[in-house]
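Predicting holo structure, fe (ii) ion bound.
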Amino acid sequence: MQTKPKPAGFFTPIEELTEHELLYRLLISLQNLPGSTELNEEEIIKLPSEVYEYWRNSDHGLAHSKQVLARALIILRSCPNLLRLCYMRCLDPIEITALITWASILHDFARFTQYKTLPIHQLVGSELARHAFIEEVEDHVSKNLAEMIIRHDYCCEFVDREQLPTLFIKNPLAEMFRLADKTSLSPVDEITRYNNTGKRLGKAKFFDPDFPMESRLQFNGRYEGWDYLNHFLLFFAIQPKDWFFGETRDLYREWQEKCEGGKSKACAKILEFAAAEGLDGDQIYSLVNVLDSFFKKFNLPNYVG
Ligand SMILES: [Fe+2]
Ligand SMILES: [Fe+2]
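Done. Tokens:
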């Protein structure tokens, strides 16, 4: 007789998690969402292919989750004061490891889904996380997991039109997780990941010279009608001041300045992508002009050099 597959538990290490177990866990979280007396049929039908997409994807799928987790473990070791604050929030080391594991798995999962009720992937991921382990872990642990995911894509004040959310002050694990997500690879590899994402989605132009500079630099309607270049600008927009704690600020500064050539090398890489995309001299000139104007307008270091 065939036995039913058991869902992966909260403490299952990422390397032992199977595709089937993740699917089972997501079904549980959907079942537990408030107001869902039964699973939405459309969601059940789509879920296996969404899990498969996540599993094989290299820019925001399982490979990215593993990179974020590895980086988060390094960050935890480098932030003894923040770790102490996590202990004061009644989390023990095993729970902290499990939390960063599941935050790594679930934070971008919704990028592979089409849930209509919650249009933003960080909200969907956070809802799934909040309900995935009900009655298996204490409520404050589930709440922590949801908090780690809900604002993981916050960039900075002029992009998000909002000061650094107080969530990161109250929950240092959420700040460390966001840092791990933003710095899981070196700057040059991170910008390459953005470029690969744009290619995979295939919806936008690499560079649209007709995108009016004013709307470009207002970051209106986040993602709507953007070319790849505007997504790249987000990467440069984040600065050490966009982290609340000294330990996370210092780690971000070190990463953006020194890690494998830092953001300067990432900026040079954009020009390589532009050449590979077949942009002519005039287009490259206006692309550099966008970068220059952006760095000047927001008083950022000029990575074009
Ligand atoms: Fe994300
Ligand atoms: Fe991510």
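Residues 62-78 form the longest helix (17 residues).
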